[in-house]
Amino acid sequence: MRLLHGSNVEIVKPDLAMCQSMNDFGRGFYMTPQWQRAYLMAKRRAGRDGGWPVVNPFLYYPTSAQEHGLKVKEFNGFSAEWSKFIIQNRSDEQFIHDYDVVIGPVADAFVDREIERHKRKYGPRYLDTEALLDFAEHVSQFGNKYVQYCFCTERAIKELIKE
After folding, report:
1. pTM listed for this prediction
2. Residue 154 has pLDDT above 70, yes or no
3. Are 99 and 152 within 8 A, CB to CB?
4. How far does Cα 45 stand from its chain's mean position?
C-alpha cells in the first residue's frame, strides 16, 4: 500500500523525535493514502515553516506488520471509541496508548475548539458513552473524507519503505 506524508522537506527515514505530540492519534508519523490530503498538509507546512511543498511516498505492507507482531488499531468511521481516543490524545498530556499503528478518520485542527466546547457542555461526564456519541456525531458533520495512518513506534517506522 502506498502512503504519503506532506512536508516542506524530503523525508528518507521518519524520525519520531521530530513528531509533535497531542495530535489525533498521539505522537507519530502521519500519512494518508490520499494524494490531495498529503499535498494540502505539505502546503500548510511550507506556508508555516518555509520551503516548498513535498509529498513523500512510502510503501507499507499491513501483512508484514501483522507478521512482525505490530499492534494496530483501526477506527472505521466516527464512533464513541474514536471520539474518546481523539479527546484523550489531544487534551491529556499524560495519556499514552500502546499501539504501533493507528488508522482512522482525520479530526484535524478544528477539533481542538470542538473538544473545549464538548467539555464545557458535558462537564465531568465528557467521556461518558452518550457524550462521546454526541461528539462523534457533531464532528462527523465535517466529513469522513480523509483517512490517516499514524506510525507511533520505531517498530512501526521500520515497516515503511521509501518509494
Report:
1. 0.92
2. yes
3. yes
4. 16
